[in-house]
Amino acid sequence: MPRGFAFGEAEVRRLAIAVRLDPDDESALLDLSIVLADRGRYREALQHLDEGHRRFPDRAATSTTLARLLASSPDRSVRDGQRAFEVATMVYQREPSPAHGETVAIALAELGRCDEAVDWMRRAIEDADRAKDAFEGGRLRSEASKYAARPCRP
User: DSSP readout, the chain?
Assistant: First the structure.
């Protein structure tokens, strides 16, 4: 589902029904959570991600999306940096990748641990470079300056 595309309430209902009918469908869960977040319904998105993570804690996409929402939701009342860090670290330990390293950095920034966030971003960039993933390396480089600023909280 393309991000930034405006979905109506009918699309939200359709996705919610799909998730209810097949709670194992990670794609539908993620689509619903992203649509809800795009519409500013962060608490509802978090509830769906929490349920998906509770049911399937080993699903990296659900866990990463949950950690990122907990660490950087525009609705600060939804944020939980410590939980975001725990979830992000667990994902990174299972599947080390530049994007998962970035998620750890986002969580650390939410906790105000800016120097550690910078270190994790540096590691993510190095991992992307080692993998010869120029697109990901460039994307991470463009994000890295946010973590050098003080405060670095997203």
Answer: --TT----HHHHHHHHHHHHH-TT-HHHHHHHHHHHHHTT-HHHHHHHHHHHHHH-TT-HHHHHHHHHHHHH-SSGGG--HHHHHHHHHHHHHHS--HHHHHHHHHHHHHTT-HHHHHHHHHHHHHHHHHTT-HHHHHHHHHHHHHHHSSS---
